[in-house]
């Protein structure tokens, strides 16, 4: 049999009305449906019909009065949404962001295990530590704990969750009605975790889920973030502004993963791409300009200030970005702040120009062009060591997703880069990831799970 | 128009394979489907077709190795299940137990608001404090905090949640695309809560949900529990062993509610009823006996020990229940422990007989009989100041629910005590509860919401 071409992973990042900060003001924006499940069902079903690997919800655990005034700021809780979507879809993977700073590992492990059961093996968890004071103030803090502390806690949180997911071995269930034995107690294990932040006995009160555990995703690209990814993540969402930077990031994370004794194919790198698609490049640029024109510059500036942890309100919009100090106030999103500074410097942008560059995807790669241009870009990154696939972030959700599905996907399929049909049933199978054996298992399942990676449809 | 007869509330308590502890061993038990959504979908849809007011999931945040061995102990997480069920049903109310001891109010308020949005106004929260060391050990404690402390925390937790649900006023959403104004910031409020246990700024990041907030349910029948119910609960789940005790409880809670300035119709009392239905009383008794016969006495004894906080393992099964000390070790389920002691004493039961009496519903009222006998019992309690409706707890879920729907409901309908069709769309409407105005609202919605109670279909 001919060796199948390596296939691109495509994740739909489902952000509200669209990733452009002014998308909600667009005439086509379905703003009345933001709290209505029919909106999410429609998009999820559409993405599944188009054979996307997964859909993804980000999250943030706070909102300001300014944000509710100037943006479509009501957001349904992601795990609630995933649970609902799980029963109206059959194949597509379901990924949600949940913070390790403001949850209990037992509760979270249970919820993801439940969603993995409900969806028959399609759950994924984007692990974040939460980076803002605004969020911390909803959870008994005055300020967000510092970066290193959050990552230390996050690592322990994940260790506890892994013990809990593994607490029921693969063959623990017996279900012998006659003998009255439901599970083999020798194959159900306590976590007995006692660490710096958590003390959790276990076992989990849900039996092992179809994927063993959710696919572990990570999106921090700071030094701590990359280290965490390299050790634990099976997929990495990342914002990259140039092919070269993306290549460096890709190779860095893969090598770090190898440093932890992992196979480089066990960790998938997915840069974000925020497309606006037109029949001509001019049409696309005009569409994008119309979105920029709908943005409120004062609110954009205030959002940027919050993102980089530096108050820009006194600075002229048509002047340059001021010097940002390297340390101290930047406790939040370290890598994103660096990306924004580098972008402004490299392209010599005024603050106003920078706001436009960030409006479509908050630092993710934006591109307005024809379907061919976008497909070629994805191919270039994919074929040149910058990506295993992409986080697709339509700037305007309805129209932008339709354009991507109808115009870009056929080209990717023609190039042999994206599936015609699902070949697997679980998110792990879509992404080409192995099945993780329980750490308490007496059987040596680990080897066979890695072999499975190499025969999956994702790897050439 | 003729005054409509007061209608009974019927809530289906959906417990795993059934409420009898040995239900999972019954030949008809769908034990393979316990982690499969199709099982829950089927029951929820059936309950909705039968016009139940609501379905309800209890919860417990731990499992022992003994429980996984001898009982069908894998349990999907309730909020995850409610979210999934919300999109495959249209009318039935959706209630889940969540503990105030091991969650953050911001997260929980957000999840219930999201489920209320997804379900278009059908969410209910059964507020519990969690009562066992086994649970505490999954959440960084060695022992469960004492009863009074848990209730103090619970009260503050609820106060925070209420502030968050109320943080978006009824008319906060503007959604003016042209002006770029999504919400009126003067109608979106911070919680600014600083208390003994929580410090939460708010506002919530989801706009006000259809019911304003979930229906608040409480199930503790201790002194602290009743006080909490009287002040906050809109429905009370309770275990009562005799009509007389149920009447005393009913009147006590209603009077306490009036003591908080509430209308007695704003709090609905729903005792649990665990039926086994036969064409004759003998057939029903035989069905029930067959379930008892499937139970494992050692495991039953160990569960009882855990429930009452007293190790019974040394005591002969055919001897009496020993004297239990009143204080100290009973930190958990105070009122249930008292109920069990009273039951054993009143009926002069041996430990084995007590285990049988508890096997079908853990202290809730069990009845094996004909449909007529059961309908008459419900009518008697409902018409004589003991109940506003019932928590229906089939001892064997599939067959028991079918029997109840096909045999008992028609009799209740004939008596004019239970609806033929839904007359409302939300859980509040089904239960005959008013719409709660935001505490931050400048409009006086409170009066009109109470008036609404009196014109609903629940109140004569």
From TrEMBL, chains A, B:
Pfam families: Bac_luciferase. Residues 26-386 form the Luciferase-like domain. Residues 438-460 are annotated as: Disordered. FMN binds at residues 59, 97, 147, 151, 221-222. Keywords: Flavoprotein, FMN, Monooxygenase, Oxidoreductase. InterPro entries: Diverse_substr_monoxygenases, Luciferase-like_dom, Luciferase-like_sf, NTA_MOA. Residues 443-460 have a biased composition (Basic and acidic residues). GO terms for molecular function: monooxygenase activity; oxidoreductase activity, acting on paired donors, with incorporation or reduction of molecular oxygen. SUPFAM superfamilies: Bacterial luciferase-like (SSF51679). The keyword Flavoprotein applies. Belongs to the NtaA/SnaA/DszA monooxygenase family. This is Luciferase-like domain-containing protein. It comes from Bacillus gobiensis.
């Amino acid at each position: 049999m001919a060796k199948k071409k390596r296939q691109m992973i495509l994740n739909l990042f489902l952000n509200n009305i669209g990733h452009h900060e002014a998308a909600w003001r667009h005439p086509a924006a379905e703003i009345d449906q933001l709290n209505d499940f029919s909106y999410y069902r429609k998009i999820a079903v559409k993405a599944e019909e188009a054979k996307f690997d997964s859909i993804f919800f980000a999250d943030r655990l706070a909102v300001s009065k300014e944000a509710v005034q100037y943006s479509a700021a009501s957001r349904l809780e992601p795990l609630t949404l995933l649970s609902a979507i799980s029963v109206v879809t059959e194949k597509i993977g379901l990924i949600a962001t949940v913070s390790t700073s403001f949850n209990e590992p037992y509760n979270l492990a249970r919820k993801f295990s439940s969603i993995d059961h409900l969806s028959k093996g399609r759950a994924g968890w984007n692990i974040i530590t939460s980076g803002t004071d605004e969020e911390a103030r909803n959870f008994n803090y005055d300020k967000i704990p510092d970066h290193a502390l959050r990552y230390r806690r996050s690592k322990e949180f994940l260790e506890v969750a892994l013990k809990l997911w593994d607490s029921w071995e693969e063959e623990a269930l017996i279900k012998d009605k006659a003998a009255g034995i439901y599970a083999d107690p020798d194959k159900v294990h306590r976590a007995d975790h006692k660490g710096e932040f958590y003390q959790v006995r276990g076992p989990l009160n849900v039996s092992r889920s179809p994927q063993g555990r959710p696919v572990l995703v990570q999106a921090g690209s700071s030094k701590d973030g990359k280290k965490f990814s390299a050790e634990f993540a099976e997929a990495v969402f990342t914002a990259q502004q140039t092919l070269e930077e993306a290549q460096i990031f890709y190779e860095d994370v893969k090598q770090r993963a190898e440093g932890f004794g992992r196979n480089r194919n066990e960790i998938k790198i997915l840069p974000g791409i925020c497309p606006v698609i037109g029949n001509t490049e001019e049409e696309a640029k005009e569409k994008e300009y119309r979105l920029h024109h709908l943005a409120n510059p004062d609110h954009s500036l205030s959002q940027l200030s919050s993102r980089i942890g530096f108050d820009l309100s006194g600075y002229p919009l048509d002047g340059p970005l001021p010097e940002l100090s390297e340390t101290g106030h930047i406790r939040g999103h370290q890598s994103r702040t660096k990306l924004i500074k580098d972008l402004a410097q490299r392209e010599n942008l005024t603050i106003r120009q920078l706001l436009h560059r960030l409006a479509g995807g908050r630092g993710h790669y934006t591109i307005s062009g024809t379907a061919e241009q976008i497909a070629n870009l994805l191919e270039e990154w994919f074929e040149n060591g910058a990506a295993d696939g992409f986080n697709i972030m339509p700037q305007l959700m309805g129209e932008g997703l339709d354009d991507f599905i109808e115009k870009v996907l056929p080209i990717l399929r023609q190039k042999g880069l994206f599936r015609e049909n699902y070949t697997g049933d679980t998110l792990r199978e879509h992404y080409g990831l192995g099945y993780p054996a329980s750490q308490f298992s007496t059987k040596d399942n680990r080897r066979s799970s890695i072999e499975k990676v190499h025969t999956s449809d994702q790897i050439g």
